[in-house]
Amino acid sequence: MVVLDNVPSAVLVLAVGVLFATGVYLLLERSLTRVLLGFVLVGNGANLALLIAGGRAGAAPIVGNADPAIPLSDPLAQAMVLTSIVITLALTAFVLAMAYRSHQLNGHDEVQDDDEDRRIARLALRNEAAWTDVDAAETGETLDEEAAEVHDDIEESLQVSTGPAGGVATGSTGEEGEP
Amino acid sequence: MTWGSATLLPLPVLVPLVSAGLTLALHRHPRAQRVISVVALSVVVATAGVLVGLADHGPVVAVIGDWTVPVGINLVADRLSALMLLVSSIVLLCVLLYSMAQGVADGSDDVGLVGDGDRATPDEGDADEADRRDVLPVAIYHPTFLVLAAGVANAFLAGDLFNLYVGFEVLLAASYVLLTLGGTGDRIRAGSVYVVVALVSSLVFLTAVGLAYAATGTVNLAQLAERLPDVDPAVRLSIQLLLLLGFGIKAAIFPLSAWLPDSYPTAPAPVTAVFAGLLTKVGVYAILRTQTLLFPSTGPGASRVDQVLLVLALLTMVVGILGAVAQDDIKRLLSFTLVSHIGYLIFGIALAGSASTAAAIFYVVHHITVQTALFLVVGLIERRGGTTSLDRLGGLARVAPGLAILFFVPAMNLAGIPPLSGFLGKVGLLEAGVRDGTPLAWVLVVGSVVTSLLTLYALVKAWNKAFWQQIPDEIAAGDVGEARLPRGMVAATSALVVGSLALTVLAGPVYGYAQRAADALTDGHSYVDAVFPGGGSLGVGDSAVEDPAVKTGEVGH
Question: A139 CA to chain B: closest CA distance, Å?
Answer without folding.
Answer: 10
